[in-house]
Amino acid sequence: MKVAIIASNGGLFDAYKVFNIATVAASSDAEVGIFFTFEGLNLVHKEGYKQLPMPAGKEHFQEGFKKQNVPSIEELVGMASEMGVKMIACQMTMDVMSLEKEEFVEGIDVGGAATFMHFASDANMTLTF
Predict the structure, then answer these.
(1) Mind listing the domains of the chain with CATH numbers?
(2) Which of 32, 75, 86, 103 is most buried, taking the most CB atoms under 10 A from its CB?
(3) In contact, 18 and 11? CB cutoff 8 Å
(4) Residues 1, 31 contacting (CB under 8 angstroms)
């Protein structure tokens, strides 16, 4: 199976959705690719992913995450990388935002929409967060 994920939002809940699906799919031997664009780039930015915003009024989730031993986003990014999840940062968005590849986590690829389209062209499942 091949799973293609587009991450275009940059909040904490978005990160959990993206990396939970990606790591579960990868653990099931699926080939997984994530295309990070616009605010979604925060999910793999070396500083951004350590301080992702929690939706207003949902602060109580932090206690639940801790109580249930839910891995941090930093840990989930590392797990995804170790599991071979292909992570592609959108070149156009990086250019618009004046961001460099060195500002992102290790193992990130940089490519345009065409790069992701090539990956996703034969995906069994495509998800957007």
Answers:
(1) 2-128 (3.40.1260.10)
(2) 32
(3) no
(4) yes
